[in-house]
């Protein structure tokens, strides 16, 4: 089955975000994702459990050779009910960001995904879109739609940000 890319539009929204420098994707993402899920799950000033919030969106910055640089940001869109007035995080590392709307090229794949899987899918998406496609080369998004311990039927996506004309 040939995997298809999809073009998707996301509206501007508030995201809970946490970033890291100095450690690799595989060293740090589990810990950062846990912190965000705890915030969404009720570790916030109001003690408010906000429900399910997926995908988890990890912004990565590839070097020219494709290897991911040691800085990244993990974000989760705050659930709709709380968009107007998100509960304040109790973890000082978490910030609430207003992110602009975006159009992304997406490619979906399964399994447990770390840096090497996301890099492989990103290079596949690059080939599928072609060299001249209008997407940002300096960063891309590694997305997961499942809780960390879900054993099978996992959904991951690579997102490339479309350059606005």
From TrEMBL:
The keyword Cytoplasm applies. One of its GO terms (cellular component) is cytoplasm. Its main location: cytoplasm. SUPFAM superfamilies: Probable bacterial effector-binding domain. Belongs to the HEBP family. It comes from the Eukaryota. It is found in: Cytoplasm. PANTHER family: HEME-BINDING PROTEIN 1, HEME-BINDING PROTEIN-RELATED. Keywords: Cytoplasm. Monomer. GO terms for molecular function: heme binding. May bind free porphyrinogens that may be present in the cell and thus facilitate removal of these potentially toxic compound. Binds with a high affinity to one molecule of heme or porphyrins. It binds metalloporphyrins, free porphyrins and N-methylprotoporphyrin with similar affinities. This is Heme-binding protein 1. It comes from Oryzias melastigma (Marine medaka). InterPro entries: Reg_factor_effector_dom_sf, SOUL_heme-bd.
């Amino acid at each position: 089955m040939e995997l298809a890319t999809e073009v998707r539009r996301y509206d501007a929204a508030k995201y809970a975000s946490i970033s890291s420098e100095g450690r690799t994707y595989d060293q740090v993402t589990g810990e950062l994702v846990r912190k965000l899920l705890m915030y969404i799950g009720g570790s916030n000033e109001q003690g408010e459990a906000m429900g399910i919030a997926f995908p988890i969106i990890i912004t990565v910055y590839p070097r020219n050779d494709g290897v991911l640089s040691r800085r990244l940001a993990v974000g989760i869109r705050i659930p709709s009910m709380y968009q107007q007035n998100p509960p304040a995080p109790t973890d000082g590392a978490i910030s609430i960001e207003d992110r602009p709307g975006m159009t992304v090229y997406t490619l979906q794949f399964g399994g447990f995904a770390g840096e090497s899987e996301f890099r492989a899918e990103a290079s596949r998406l690059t080939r599928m879109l072609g060299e001249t496609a209008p997407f940002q080369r300096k960063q891309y998004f590694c997305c997961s739609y499942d809780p960390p311990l879900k054993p099978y039927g996992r959904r991951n996506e690579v997102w490339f940000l479309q350059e606005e004309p």
